[in-house]
Structure formats: C-alpha cells, structure tokens
C-alpha cells in the first residue's frame, strides 16, 4: 500500500493545493476581503501568491523525497512511476496556479 | 489425477446452478461479466434508438415528429442511458469478466457483491426504462440543472425518476469499484508484482479509484435535490439561502472525472489489443501507467470548465482553463506510446485494429476541439451549441465506442469459444466510421453557425437545413453499421465453428485457459515471472490444466489466494461463498427503498431499511466458522494462513475503499456547506442553531470512548480474554454519539426556511446514520463473540468494525464541531 501511496502522493497534494487555492480565492471574493497595507500589493494577491509559493515548495520537497534514498522503495518500477507523477505534479502546480500571479482577482 | 478429471471436479465445485434459474443465484464473475455486458449492450441499443429519434426530429425544419416536451425526454434519456446505463456498466462488465483471468486467479474479491451490483443496475435501469415507456421520463437534460429541476419548475415525477433511479444505479458502480480495487490489489497470481500487472489492470485500478472519488459528489447532489423536491429543504433555492450553482459544482465534480472514467478503460483495451495486433509488446509501460495516474488526478481539477459562462471571476476561470489544457499532455503521452508501439511492430489490419485506427482519428479530433473549448473566450461562443455536442461525441464515441468494438471483436472468441466466420464486421466498420464522421463533423459546423443544443425545431431561415439533413443521413448510416455488428455477433454465437485456443497469439493469461472459460478459470494458479507469461511459456495452459501450479487439488471448496500488494508474494488463503440468492434479494429490498421514495410511500421506508439491515447481517453472518482453520498447503511447499485469521482481510480492504468513497461524500457535503455560506445570496439565516456545550462534550466523548473501547476489545480477544465488556462500552459510546446527533436533527431551526438549517439537518442525519450503523456492527460482533464465532485466531472481524468505529469518530466529531461552532460564532 505504501507503494501505491508513493505513486499518488504528489498528484494528491497538487489536487489539495489546487482546490485550496480555488477555495481561498472564493473566500477572498465572497467576503470582499481587500485593502492594500503593503504598498502596491493587495491582501488578496498576497494571500493567493503565498499559497502558490507554498504549493510549489511542497511539490519540490515531495520530489526530493521521491529521489531520496531514505524513502526508497524496493520496486524499480514504482520508483520510476512515482518520480514521473512527482514531476507531473510539480509542473501542474506551477502551471495551473499561475493565474494567481497574472490575473485580476474577483473580476 | 488426470487433467480431465480435475476439470470435472473443479467444474462441479465452481459451477452455477444449471439453466436459466442459475442466473439468479450465480456469483461467478464470468457469468456476471457476460450478464453485465449483454445488459449494457441492450441499453446501448435503446440509447441508439433514441439518438435516431433525435436525428429524425432534427433532419428537417419545423419537424412535427415529436413535440418539445417529448423531445426533451428523448435527448435527456439518450444522454442518461449512454452515460450511466451503457458506458459505465460496460466497463464494469468487461472488468468483472476479464480481471480475474488477466490476473491469473479464480474470481473477484467479493463474488456476492458483484452480483448485488449487477442486480442494482438492472433494477435501477429498469425504473428508468419504465418511466420512458409511460412517457414520464426525466426531461431536463442529462445534467439536471436546478432551478429547472426544482419542484416549482418540474413538479412531475419525471425528475424524481432520474434522481432516484440514477442513485440506485450508482450503488452498483460503487460496489463494482470497491470490488475491482481490492481484486487488483490483492487477488493476483503469485509472482505478479505491480510491475508485472497486465496494463488493463492498471487502467481498471485507476478507473475504479476514480469512481470511488468521483461518484459521491453526484450521489450527494442527487440526495440533496431529491430532499429539496420532496420535503422543501432549499439547498438550491437562492431565495432561501441556497444556490443553484451548488448543483453545478457537485454535478461537474462528478461529471468531468466521469468522462475519464469512460475513457480510461477504453485506453486499457487499446493498450492490451494494439500490441497483439502489431505482434509486439507495449512501448513505455511505465510511462503509460504514470500518464493514467496523472490523467486521473488532473481530471478532478477541471470541473469548472463546464461553468465558464456562469459569471465566475476571471482568476477562477483561468485556473480551470490552465488545468484543462494541461490534461491534454498525459493523453498525448499515451497516444505517442501507442504510435511508438505500432512503429515498433508490424501492424496487421485485422478487424480489432481497424476499430483502433478509427479510435485514433476520431479521438484526436475530439481532443483538439476539447482544447478549443478549454479556451474561455471560445467557449463563451460555443457553449450550449451543437459544437459542444459534436465535441463530446468525438470524445465519447471515439474514445469509448471504437475501443470497445475493438475489444468486442478481440475477446469475442473468448466469450463464445468460436471463430469469427461471417465477415460482416469489416463492412460494418466502414459504415460506422463514415456515418459517425458525417453526422458529427456536420454538427460542429452547424453549431458554429449558431444552432443551440437541445432544440426540438428550427426555422428554414436559420440556414441549417442542409447541414442537419446531411448529419441525419450520417446518423442512419452509423445505425446500420451498429445493427450489422449486432447481427454478426448473434450469428457468430449461433453458428460459428470452434475457435482454436489463443487465436491472436496473445501473451496475457486470459488466453491460457479453455475457451469459453470454465467457471474456475485455472485448474491451478500460475507463478508469474513477466508481463506476458503465456508468450514466455507456450505450454503454460497445459501445465496449469494438469495441476502444476498452486491450489491444483480440488477439495470441495472454492479456494484462491491473495498476494502482497507490491511484490506479489502469496499471503493468505481465501475460501469463497457459493451460489446464493442473497444478492438479488438484497437488491430487490434496496429497490423497495428507492421505490418507496419515488412513490412517496414513506411508511414503507423503515421496513425496507430494516430489511436491508437484516439481509446485510445475514450476508456477513454466513461467512463465520466455529473452528480455527489450520494453515493451508497451496502446493510447491508454501503454506498460507486463512484470511479469517489475519489483521487485514479482504473485508477490511473492502471497507477501507468504501470509506474512501464515503469520506469523499462527507467532504463534498462540507464543501457544499462552505460554498453556500460564502457564495450564496440570502445569508445570514433568520435563525442560528442554539449551540449546546453539553451535547458537544457528550457527543465528542462518546466518539472517543467508542474508538478506545473497540481497541481494548480487539486486544482482549487477541489475549484470549473475553472482549464482551469492552464491546458493551463501545456500544454505549456509539449510542451516546447517536443521541447527540439525534439532538441536532431535532433542534435545528426550521429547515424549510433556510439552507443553513437544512444543511445542519443533513449533517446531523449523516452522523446519526453512521452511529446507528456502528451500533449494528458492534451488536453483530457481540453476537459473534457470544456464540463462539470468534477466537484469538479468528479475529478478523475486530479490525473491520474498528475501522468503521474510527470513521464514525472522525466524522461525528467534525459534525459536532461544525454544527455547534456555527451556532456560537453567530
Ligand atoms: C449512436 C450514435 C449517436 C448519435 C447519432 C448521437 C446523437 C446525439 C445528438 C444529435 C445529440 C444532441 C441532442 C440535442 O442537443 O438536441 C446527442 C446528445 C448526447 N449524446 Fe449522443 N449520440 C450517439 C451516441 C452517444 C454515445 C455513445 C454517448 C455516450 C457514451 C452519447 C452521449 C450523449 C450525451 C451525454 C448527450 C447530451 C444530452 C443532453 O444534452 O442532455 N451519445 N446525441
Ligand atoms: Cu469536462
């Protein structure tokens, strides 16, 4: 079972991050949270971008652990597949949450 | 013992009851797989006839063929039947039939559950057919958006048929998914590690896990909508703090994964059949597995792309637009692996290969138009036009029907033991392929010219007449092709000559047996050392038949073994239950429950619920034994403990995955609550819940005591001490939870007045239901212990009950916190 978890963990974390950021975005807009206490950066932007950065960090840590000898698996096949899904999840995190940086929020 | 004698003995042990009557008590996966497939194909024909009615209606402007009301029923039932009663059950049937054979074992993990799922499907599908025959079929489109489907706009029983019938059918999908997951993880031939699993099994595993996490949001949505319609709890009514968008979220949270749930098994068929047609092995096995897993996850991050036109803020749209374009990448990886496989081998244009080529062309076009509609501004133009209908048919027909036809012709000799004789299939393929593209290319075009979907008529001035006529002619060519397939299959079953064994020279284990298969599959189980055991050892079938593998000695029991998940090392010995009517009776009683809801015969509901509980009790009860089983010799010097003496029996694994689905259901409910709270208009509610510290403390303590006590009971049993006192304590804890949950349901403010109170009522009922279930389970364990069915060795029921009590603890505490905290916060 741990081997199955190895394969799914990184995409699962992506899914969690993706829905969390979407929910955060919904909360920010639903409750009209705003304000610009930090110069040109608004509170929503700060929240969303931090969540984005956090998600990327989590994926990088996961990927490193998938390569680390400490958590290695017996099965070469599982090693390959889990690293492939690890990379996919990293790319997915960077790409799908990119709008936190580039788009207007709540419009 | 000679091979023939062994065959006779095993056949006697494993056979279903003879004749037609045997169908009602069979638990054999080969029978049930065939029954699933035949029933699903029947629904395909029904859905196809409806499609012909649609095309007949749209062939000319001002068509007088069907009135708008009837037309609404026709396209709704076409979509619903194709998605829920054809596509998903076809996957289930194929998996049920093939998996044990591909995995080198004798049956699926829970044979009676397979049968139960099948009968739920038949009864639920029957309800929908009935509604159609009497002209009271659902008529609000296959995604049933409120407020159109609310009690005000759709007062008739039509919508209830959909909500209740589909939920009933969904039970069968969940049952099959649990079954398939546990079977693939545990029920394989010795030596079959994860890396040696046939590729179809990987696809089926991913698909089953997606069903477990994709279907619960829809089940939740259907329950909420039905409760709204029947009792007026306003989950989707904006005037009372509900929101119709909540339905769209819940539906598409299911609906998008659904299309991959349909595509992935088909991709599994392609990955299995294509290499055989090209006389080579699959290129990039590991890449394909990774791509399937990636696809499964990404597909859960796409749902909002069906809601691009609902006014969601731009950033939200952009997330889902980005994810929707990304999902093309793992799909592309698979396509390239298949192209590479063809490159590597020598493709042979036999009939399955033709359908695979049909798949390639069609599916790639569908994928491209998919990327087009993933682009938000384009979708704003194309949304709800025939362009989208054309796109979805390219993906569904291209990505599912063509591969399934390839699979049908590939495994036909296996199903029937006969050789294809009438070469109608090639002509049929040509008609299907041409007909399909004529129909749906035209629909893209007319969609771009502005034809909306779901319209029963249009004007000559619209300028769509010629294109629609062409499209309809294409549709009828397609239908003739499908009819020819049907005729060929029937002729084939009746008249063809016997097929040699392994007619395609395939390497996977399903061909290493006599065809049509004997009920036990393998007279002895193989030891697997590669992905294509039958290629490595062409004598394998003969050696297995003569009992050279594992468990080759018939001993009056239906036996098999399980393996460790990763390595494929044998770990337990399993004895299956035999033929029984329990599944069909249980499905009928479950059906009574749904029928009482539909007919608003609420007095009957408690009777049905008690009936289901009693049957479930019996279901598990008959598995018990009063003596410890010694370790079993499975041959080749290996001895295994029986599954009733281990910590994690198949029942434990089944419960675990059922709870995964259950947790998704609960998660969706919490999501719905948060969604209404933040997004829905009409908040704050007129009255808040009157929070109570005493109830909160009582409920939480009860949950924790229950969890602690079941652990002590389990330990006591292991130490040969009587566990009854601990079980009693566990029961008391669970009862406390039930009381605290009941208190919520009794004390919520008027639930018909606001979605807030309505949601609390559902949360409380959810906890109450699980507490009652927990009490039933603990009571079961008490009776088992009192009557001597458990011992220090026969301990396996304790961990199962513990799992459910733990789950109860977690969800109950969450429910108590959510309910009481919202009361305080306000
Ligand atoms: C046999 C050939 C088929 C033909 C000629 C056909 C034709 C059509 C047409 C013309 C519509 C549009 C109805 C309208 O918007 O007024 C439609 C809708 C639909 N079809 Fe098919 N179809 C076929 C097969 C399938 C298959 C195999 C599937 C799924 C596996 C499918 C799933 C759907 C769905 C989900 C809808 C949407 C229904 C709705 O709008 O509620 N169809 N079909
Ligand atoms: Cu979608």
TrEMBL record, chain A:
Transmembrane spans: 47-68, 80-98
Domain of life: Bacteria
Entry keyword set: Membrane, Transmembrane, Transmembrane helix
Protein name listed in UniProt: Uncharacterized protein
Taxonomic lineage from the root: Bacteria, Pseudomonadati, Pseudomonadota, Alphaproteobacteria, Parvularculales
UniProtKB/TrEMBL annotation, chain B:
Keyword presence, ATP-binding: no
Keywords: Cell membrane, Copper, Electron transport, Heme, Iron, Membrane, Metal-binding, Oxidoreductase, Respiratory chain, Translocase, Transmembrane, Transmembrane helix, Transport
InterPro entries with a match to the protein in the record: Cyt_c_oxase-like_su1_dom, Cyt_c_oxase-like_su1_sf, Cyt_C_Oxase_1, Cyt_c_Oxase_su1_BS, Cyt_c_oxidase-like_su3, Cyt_c_oxidase_su1_bac, Cyt_c_oxidase_su3-like_sf, Cyt_c_oxidase_su3_a-hlx
GO terms under biological process: electron transport coupled proton transport; oxidative phosphorylation; respiratory electron transport chain
Residue ranges of domain Heme-copper oxidase subunit III family profile in the record: 568-824
Enzyme category, top tier: translocase
UniProt EC number: 7.1.1.9
Membrane topology, record value: Multi-pass membrane protein
Pathway membership, UniProt: Energy metabolism; oxidative phosphorylation
All residue ranges annotated as the Cytochrome oxidase subunit I profile domain in the record: 8-529
A single cellular component GO annotation: plasma membrane
Annotated compartments: Cell membrane
Name of the protein described by the UniProt record: cytochrome-c oxidase
Lineage: Bacteria, Pseudomonadati, Pseudomonadota, Alphaproteobacteria, Parvularculales
């Amino acid at each position: 079972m741990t081997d199955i978890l190895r394969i799914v963990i990184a995409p699962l974390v992506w899914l969690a991050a993706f829905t969390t950021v979407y929910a955060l975005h919904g909360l920010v807009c639903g409750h009209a949270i705003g304000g610009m206490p930090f110069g040109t950066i608004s509170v929503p932007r700060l929240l969303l971008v931090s969540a984005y950065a956090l998600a990327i960090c989590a994926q990088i840590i996961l990927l490193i652990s998938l390569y680390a000898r400490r958590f290695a698996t017996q099965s070469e096949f599982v090693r390959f597949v889990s690293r492939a899904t690890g990379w996919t999840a990293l790319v997915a995190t960077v790409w799908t949450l990119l709008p936190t940086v580039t788009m207007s929020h709540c419009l | 013992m000679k091979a023939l004698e062994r065959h006779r003995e095993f056949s006697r042990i494993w056979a279903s009851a003879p004749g037609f009557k045997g169908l009602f008590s069979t638990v054999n996966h080969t029978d049930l797989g065939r029954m699933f497939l035949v029933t699903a194909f029947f629904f395909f024909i029904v859905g196809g006839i409806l499609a012909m009615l649609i095309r007949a209606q749209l062939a000319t402007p001002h068509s007088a063929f069907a009135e708008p009301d009837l037309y609404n029923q026709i396209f709704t039932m076409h979509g619903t039947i194709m998605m829920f009663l054809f596509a998903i059950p076809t996957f289930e049937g194929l998996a049920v039939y093939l998996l044990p054979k591909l995995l080198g074992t004798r049956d699926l993990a829970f044979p009676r559950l397979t049968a139960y799922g099948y009968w739920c499907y038949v009864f639920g599908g029957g309800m929908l057919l009935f509604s159609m025959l009497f002209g009271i079929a659902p008529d609000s489109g296959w995604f049933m958006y409120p407020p159109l489907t609310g009690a005000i706009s759709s007062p008739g029983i039509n919508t209830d048929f959909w909500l209740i019938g589909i939920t009933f059918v969904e039970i069968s999908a969940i049952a099959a998914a649990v079954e398939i997951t546990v079977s693939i993880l545990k029920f394989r031939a010795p030596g079959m590690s994860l890396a040696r699993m046939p590729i179809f099994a990987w696809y089926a595993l991913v698909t089953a896990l997606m069903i477990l996490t994709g279907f619960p949001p829809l089940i939740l949505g259907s329950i909420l909508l039905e409760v709204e319609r029947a009792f007026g709890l306003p989950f989707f009514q904006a005037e009372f703090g509900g929101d119709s968008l909540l339905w769209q979220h819940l539906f598409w949270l299911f609906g998008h994964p659904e299309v991959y749930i349909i595509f992935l098994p088909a991709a599994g068929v392609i990955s299995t059949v294509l290499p055989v047609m090209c006389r080579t092995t699959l290129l990039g096995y590991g890449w394909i597995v990774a791509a399937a897993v990636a696809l499964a996850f990404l597909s859960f991050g796409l749902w909002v792309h069906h809601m691009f036109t609902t006014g969601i803020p731009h950033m939200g749209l952009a997330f889902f637009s980005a994810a929707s374009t990304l999902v093309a990448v793992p799909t592309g990886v698979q396509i390239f692996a298949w192209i590479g496989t063809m490159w590597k081998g020598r493709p042979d244009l036999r009939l399955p290969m033709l359908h695979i080529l049909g798949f390639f062309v069609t599916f790639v076009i569908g994928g491209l138009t998919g990327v087009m509609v993933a682009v938000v501004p384009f979708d704003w133009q194309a949304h709800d036009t025939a362009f989208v209908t054309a796109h979805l048919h390219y993906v569904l027909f291209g990505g599912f029907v063509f591969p399934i036809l390839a699979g049908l012709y590939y495994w036909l000799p296996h199903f029937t033991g006969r050789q294809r004789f009438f070469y109608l299939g090639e002509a049929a393929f040509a008609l299907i392929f041409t007909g399909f593209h004529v129909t749906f290319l035209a629909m893209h075009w007319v969609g771009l010219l502005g034809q909306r979907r779901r319209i029963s008529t249009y004007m000559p001035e619209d300028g769509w007449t010629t294109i629609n006529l062409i499209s309809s002619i294409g549709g009828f060519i397609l239908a003739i092709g499908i009819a020819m397939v049907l005729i060929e299959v029937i002729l084939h079953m009746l008249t063809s000559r016997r097929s040699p064994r392994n007619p395609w020279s395939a390497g996977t284990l399903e061909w290493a047996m006599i065809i049509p298969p004997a009920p036990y599959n393998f007279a002895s189980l193989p030891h697997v050392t590669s992905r294509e055991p039958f290629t490595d050892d062409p004598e394998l079938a003969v050696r297995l038949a003569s009992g050279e593998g594992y468990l080759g000695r018939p001993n009056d029991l239906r036996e098999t073994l399980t393996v460790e998940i990763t390595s494929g090392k044998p770990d337990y010995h399993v004895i299956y239950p035999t033929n029984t009517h329990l599944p069909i009776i249980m499905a009928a009683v479950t059906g009574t429950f749904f029928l009482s809801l539909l007919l608003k015969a609420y007095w009957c509901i408690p009777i049905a619920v008690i009936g289901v509980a009693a049957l479930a009790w019996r279901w598990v009860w008959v598995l018990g034994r009063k003596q410890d089983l010694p370790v079993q010799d499975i041959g080749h010097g290996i001895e295994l403990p029986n599954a009733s003496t281990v910590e994690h029996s198949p029942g434990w694994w089944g419960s675990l995955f059922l709870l995964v689905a259950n947790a998704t259901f609960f998660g969706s409910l919490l999501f719905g609550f948060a969604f209404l709270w933040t997004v829905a208009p009409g908040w704050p509610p007129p009255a808040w819940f009157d929070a109570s510290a005493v109830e909160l403390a009582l409920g939480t303590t009860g949950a924790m005591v229950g969890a602690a006590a079941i652990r002590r009971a389990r330990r006591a049993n292991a130490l040969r001490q009587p566990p009854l006192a601990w079980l009693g304590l566990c029961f008391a804890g669970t009862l406390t939870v039930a009381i605290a949950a009941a208190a919520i349901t009794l004390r919520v403010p008027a639930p018909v007045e606001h979605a807030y109170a309505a949601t609390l009522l559902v949360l409380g009922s959810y906890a109450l239901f699980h507490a009652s279930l927990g009490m039933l389970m603990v009571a079961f364990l008490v009776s088992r212990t009192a009557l001597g069915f458990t011992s220090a060795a026969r301990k396996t029921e304790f961990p199962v009950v513990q799992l459910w009590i733990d789950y109860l603890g977690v969800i109950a505490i969450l429910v108590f916190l959510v309910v009481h905290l919202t009361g305080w916060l306000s």
